[in-house]
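ARCHIVE ENTRY
Sequence with per-residue tokens
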Amino acid sequence: MIFPENSVDKLGFTEIKELLKQHCLSDMGRELAGRMQVMNNFEQINKFLNQAAEFKNVLQNDDALPINHFYDVKSLANKMRVEGSFLTEDEFFRAQVSLTTVFAVIGYFNDREGVYPFLEALFEHLPVEKSILKKIDLVIDQKGKIRPNASRELEDITSGIAKAEQDARRKIDQIYKSATANGWTADGSLTVRDGRLCIPVLAENKRKIKGFVHDESASGQTVYIEPEEVFTLNNHIRDLEFERRREVIKILTTLTDELRPFVPLLLSYHGLLTKLDFVRAKGLFAIDIEAGMPKLVNEPGAKLINARHPLLYLSFKKEHKTVVPLNVTIDDATRVVVVSGPNAGGKSVCMKTIGLLQMMAQAGLLIPADDSSQVGVYKQIFADIGDDQSIESDLSTYSAHLSKMKYFVEHANAKTLILIDEFGTGTDPQFGGPIAEAVLESLNQKKVRGVVTTHYSNLKIFAGNTEGLENASMLFDNREMRPLYILEVGKPGSSYAFEIAQKIGLPQNVLNLAKNKIGFSQKKVDTLLVDLEREKKEIYDTRTNLDKETRKVNLLKKENEQLKSYLEENKRNLIREAKQEAQNIILNANKLVENTIAGIKSSQADKEETRKLRENLNSELQKTKIHAAPAKSVTPVNDSEVKVGDWVKLKDSDTTGQVMEIARDNVIIAIGDLRTVAKKSKVQKVSKKEVPKDVRRSYSSQTTEVASFSPEIDVRGMRGEDALFAIEKMFDRAVMMGIGSLKILHGKGDGILRKLIRDYLKKYDQVSHMEDEHADRGGSGITYVYLK
């Protein structure tokens, strides 16, 4: 239940329905969209939300649904229901194409059985009676005209008409040629009058041709005559046409009679088409507003994450602006959020966003918020928005507010969502404040949920001291005197009345007079609130900077872990190779000793032969030592100067890398994902063959990464923090890879994002300078960043 009824207009739900109608293909779909209501049945809401989510998935990720025509099959079925009635050719054609669409849609989802269970439920247990379509196809062709061979009689009549028309045309052509040869005809050719083919004859010659005069020209000099011989033939054609019309009616009546038993099934098909059109519109609208499927729970409450007002989002989208997202939670602990803050700071938009998204969700519409958001189900939604004064009812603005408060207090319960804008206004604040506080206390005792906006200090204090109520404020930059449109839960906000008045330009002496007229306590409270706002802003900025630094630390930590992993793998490879080499040495040495012993035995310990064998053994062992020694480390290569692309080893460690750049006596070396600088004297050139394959592959992948890196980024439409994070990642990679310049597309707008990005990049020493793109190619909407 929604009270008052005009709340659907004030919260924007009526506009949502109108936007939904624009996506419907049929009048039935638009009618269903117009009748859409806020529901409170959990199962029904869940079904409708899932249907919309599945259709959105079809539109975005699957083949196009075969929807070509939507016609009102219900009106055709109701007409068919009446005995003795018949559908016309055009009506049967509309039924034909609608049924074709129905069967194509059912076939589409049957091919994807189990993929879209909630959409499949739309036609569950609905039989596919293709005999209806076959019966229509035998009579009506693909252009919506009755087939000439729909019956034997119709075929004969059609042939007779064609032959009679041919004979009549031949006869009148003969008479026309003869009259023209005699000079009786006027300028022009054969013409049609009253549906009859006539000869234009000069008025003075009209007696020379026997026939029926159908018309004459405006001047009276030309008469249009149907010759007597042709008159008889045309009458025969007219009789045949009447006969054809009677046969067509007979065929259509027979077809209608044959299909009359299928009227209930046709009405079911109509229901499917109507629902399909409506759900399709919901899917398209969800794509327009970037809506998602929230988690639905069967209890009052909400947890909105990055929520946006859909109408505000569409309006800003046209102007290439972004909506500041809303994050708010309403649960058992925080039942009512009391929002305060400056005028034009976004309090009402915040409240209307919560109310509208709740209505949309309970109407089965996807909402523009993260999929991790959660919405509950309310039995009642009460709203007090705007001025409802009425001359007819003798109600002032405040009386209208009080009438609503009376209804709220009497009928609200724990499953009621209340939305009250500018609570307590419309009368003397000295009395309006306490009344509003009493109403809020009474509503809180009923465990209602909702959002209240106010400027009254007593309501802020009451919310801070009462369980179930929670203060919140819209953040305000009191240095630049502009609202930030960010909801901060936990503390009340100042109205910034004096600050805003000063910015607008109200004379200082007037401001001083106003400040002297307010009480000391009130002035102290407002000053305290302003200070709290300033501190909150500083904490917010500090937290933002801390998050950035944390991301940097995490990135460095990840790189260090990768380097450690690389070094460990390199160490394991070297140990494994050394062990294999040692095993080969031992194996070869054993074979050599065994061969020597066998030789001594075979020569029967001949002294000379034994001496030769021992010398050979010592020689081979000496060679083995020489070859075994370098296995402990990578062999240095000193045959040439170190160049870019060479593999080198740091002398004070076993770390191997590739030379990326040479600057005087220094070399820049790539080691995995890292870069390091070392003196030429501290490195040794090594052979590429001796560098492990996995190390070479690592560098190859880095080269590919460099090749695929794009020095251009588009941050239009992003939030400031997200844009800076994306730019920071690109900037780090660019510095690492030695890129000379970057191109950032941020759009013009109010210039806020441009200023934010440039101020952020100025703090980096690696930035040489920044400049706008050429005016013809984007101007101040694009920034070029040049690196040192």
Observations:
- The longest strand covers residues 468-477.
- The CA atoms of residues 126 and 543 lie 58 Å apart.
- The domain at 709-787 is CATH 3.30.1370.110 (Ribosomal Protein S8; Chain: A, domain 1).
- The radius of gyration is 44 Å.
